[in-house]
Design a protein that fits this description.
Number of strands: 0
Number of helices: 11
Strand content: under 5%
Length: 192
Amino acid sequence: SNLAQPHIARLPEGVLKSLMTQRLQTLTGLQTARAQPVARTSATAVAGPKAVEVSRGQKRLTERLVTLFMQDPSLYGNITDENRAKIAKFPTEDLFAQIVRYMDQNPKAGIGEILGAWAGEPEQQLLVNVLKRPLELDAKAIAAEFADGVKRLIELADRQQRRRLLKEVQQTPTKETYLRYVSQKQDSSDDG
C-alpha cells in the first residue's frame, strides 16, 4: 500500500484514480484516502450549503450554462477567479457548480475526462444528451451568452441567499443573523 499510494496520488482526479484506490483498498484491506470525482468530494462541496429550493428560471439557466460549457470547455477560462469562488459555494447538487469545481481541480480536462468523472452517475447521461444538441451559434455568441449566463446565475443565487437570510432574520431575530443579512446585502450591492 505504501509503495503504490504515491503513484496513485499523482494521477489526475477521475474514474481511473478512484478505481485504483478502491482496488488498493480491496487488496490490502487498508483504508486510504478515498478518491472520487472532485466535483462531489471537494472541500467546498462538502462545506457548501445543503439542498435548497431552486427556481425554475435558475434551473433552466444552469442547464443552458452546462450546454454551452459542454460545447466548448475552454469557456471555463472565461470565468473569473472571483466568480469561480462564488460558484464553488453553490449547493453540492448544482451540476454547473460541480463542473466548475471539477475544472478547478482539472483545468485542462477535456470532454472525455469530464464525462468520465461522472461515469455511472445520472448526470453523465444528461451531459451526453447535451453534447448531442447542436447549437446554432458561433463561438463568439456562445462565449457572450456564457459570460452573461454566469453573471445572471450568480445574481440569482445572491438574491436567493438574501431571501433565505431575511427569512432567517424574521424567524430568529438575533444580532448575528441580522448582521449576516446586512453583510450579504452590502456585498451584493458592491458587486452591482
